[in-house]
Amino acid sequence: MIRIPRGTQDILPEDSSKWRYIENKLDELMKLYNYKEIRTPIFESTDLFARGVGDSTDVVQKEMYTFKDKGDRSLTLRPEGTAAVVRSYIENKMQGYPNQPIKLYYNGPMFRYERKQKGRFRQFNQFGIEAIGAENPSIDAEVLAMVMHIYESFGLKHLKLVINSIGDANSRKEYNEALVKHFEPVIDTFCEDCQSRLHTNPMRILDCKIDRDKEAVKNAPRITDYLNEASKAYYEEVKSYLTDLGVDYVEDPNLVRGLDYYTHTAFEVMMDNPNYDGAITTLCGGGRYNGLLELLDGPSQTGIGFALSIERLLLALEEEGIELDIGEEFDLFIVTMGDEAERYSVKLLNHLRKNGIKADKDYLKRKIKGQMKQADRLNAKYTIVIGDQELANNEIDIKNMATGESETVKVDELVQYFKQ
Predict the structure, then answer these.
(1) Cα gap 404→402, rounded to integer Å
(2) What span, in angstroms and rounded, lies between the C-alpha atoms of 121 and 151?
(3) Which residues, including other chains, have CB under 8 Å from residue 357's CB and lie 6 or more apart?
(4) Is pLDDT above 80 for 263?
């Protein structure tokens, strides 16, 4: 028996309606912030992610699905969205568009070869935004306020916004040198990944899931102590805007994020429910990236963005007992008696559907009792029973399934009845 690949999932009809509800709501929220949808290929040149994400990251070193095509080109299923969006921005010369900054959002499958666990899949769906072309603390604050607005709009309350500044390139350089000096005497007690990162990306040691509880990590230098005056001023202004917007936040000087392209503002949204089982704590992450476009041979432009997992959003909603109002009520179920009524119902159904009425009928030749049970299972608001007498009189009784009340309506006036 052929089975689904490990780390993937089928989204069955009873769940796909929740996904569609979330996706539609995200689309509507993006209209409020003037973000436009972008769709990039599911696979890209491997070099895009090696350069854009960083060849010292776990994503590039361990988690990418990479293959050769028939032209012997190395391609990779996209593991994240930012690099692909930035590539499109550069390739399509969006810096020349009249409306700046360019505000984009995406929603689609990403692929990482990870250990399967709750809320984490090898194919997962990621929604994200990128605002490219403005280095301004106010847009950083807007993005942070937006991500909180998104989660709160679904009814989530136990949320915590965690922020930090990684500083500009100069601040980051000084900080990396301090980290190397700090960790060198004890690095042989750390995992192999941390040892290999000491001289390539020492900030990632702070983010290590294996060694994060070591004293050397807890006592490591803090990036905030190495911010130059310009970086400090930028960070303070971001925080000032968040205060103006009434957005609560917590500062974490060890928050560095996992990708190489971040500078200045970095942030995560976390579950903050004391009763939560802890399977997932981080719902979303993002930050500012100054220099990524130039790294990919693009113009000297800056950007900021975030990405959230739809799977983790659904888990958070489940954890807090929040039911989505997906509106799956069905307008009408047609119950038939006899061959003539069965034949007529096909024509009637077609007419109703063309006029925007959600309708269905029995296809298994059930008895009336079985057909009524099917109407209940579909949450039909109304039912009608069509037989020889109804066809002869051109009149039917339409039953309200919630109240049990019935009303007589002419068959050819059904559409008008529902529109009223």
Answers:
(1) 6
(2) 21
(3) 331, 332, 414, 415, 418
(4) yes
How far CA 333 is from CA of 185, 347, 376, in Å, comes to 74, 14, 9
Average pLDDT, the chain: 90
Residue type, 250: V
Asked if pLDDT for residue 145 goes beyond 90, the answer is yes
**Cβ contact 264:165 at 8 Å:** yes
Give the pLDDT confidence score for residue 258 in this predicted structure: 55
Helical spans, DSSP H, in 33-105: 46-49, 58, 82-91
pTM (predicted TM-score):
0.88
Sheet of 43-45: strand order equals: 43-45, 74-77, 66-68
CA distance linking residue 104 with residue 216, whole number of Å: 40
SS3 content of the chain, % helix, strand, coil (to 5): 40, 25, 35
Per-residue pLDDT reduced to its tens digit, 363-386: 999 999 999 999 999 999 999 999
- Which residue(s) pair with 162 in the sheet? 250, 268
Pairing of strands 263-271, 159-165: antiparallel
Q: Supply the DSSP symbol for 245.
A: H
Establish how many alpha carbons lie within 13 A of residue 416's alpha carbon, considering only the half-sphere containing its beta carbon: 5
CA distance 183 to 216: 7
Q: Is the separation of the CB atoms in 275 and 66 below 8 Å? A: no
By C-alpha distance, which of 265, 179, 273 is closest to 217? 179
The token pair at 12 is 């069955």
Residue with the bigger pLDDT between 23 and 294: it is 23
| Nearest-angstrom CA–CA distance, 121 and 306 | 19
CA angle centred on 149, ends 247 and 97, rounded to 5°: 105
